[in-house]
Amino acid sequence: MKLIGGAILFVGIFLSFASQREHGEFTEHVDCNQDSCYGYYQGPEFIKGDDIAHQFSNTMSAKVGDQLKKLYKEKNYVKVDFNSLKMSTVGMGSGKVTYKLTIPFIKVSDSCAARTSFDHSGGWNHAPALSARKKQLQKALLPGENLDISPLTKTPEGLQEYWIQWRNKTTQAACAIQKK
């Protein structure tokens, strides 16, 4: 019985290493505070044709949205400062990219000037499908609301992103009758 258990353990370890080699190893990390969210991804750009590095934009967008809601509930009214956003991708094409994002917040005057949802539209070496993303996000908006969309942010290595923020229709329901 011990031999069978050892063989199963060996096969499990071997399959784990094979899976890591097949899928590539990567690291990602995000930290948020009252002033910003900062994060990075290190690893392969693509795995089996999937744009793995760019998927970090999804991770970061979710964390930023969570932080905006948290700050709002603490009566710390902020929105993303598109003008100070920093994005870099070093090593594209090498098989190991380092993708860094700093998404800063700026204080706003009141609860309805705040933004509590955040997303993106982008990709490597192609124009982002912004029109499609805008259409997808329409159902998340307060009546009469518009999305706040950053200018196109590009890295020298070819990542292109539009960053998008808006008032969350649940969190900021009381703002439905107010305009920006």
What is the element layout, followed by pairings?
Elements: H1 2-23, E1 27-32, E2 36-43, H2 56-73, E3 78-80, E4 86-90, E5 97-107, E6 117-124, H3 130-137, E7 148-149, E8 153-154, E9 159-166
Antiparallel strand pairs: 1-2, 2-5, 3-5, 4-5, 6-9, 7-9, 8-9
Description:
The protein is α+β, with helices and mostly antiparallel strands. It has one domain. Helices cover 27% and strands 29% of the residues. The chain contains three helices and nine strands. It has helices at residues 2-23, 56-73, 130-137, and strands at 27-32, 36-43, 78-80, 86-90, 97-107, 117-124, 148-149, 153-154, 159-166. Strands 1, 2, 3, 4 and 5 form a five-stranded antiparallel sheet that branches. β8 (153-154) and β9 (159-166) form a beta hairpin. It starts with a helix and ends in a 14-residue tail after the last strand. 26% of the residues are buried.
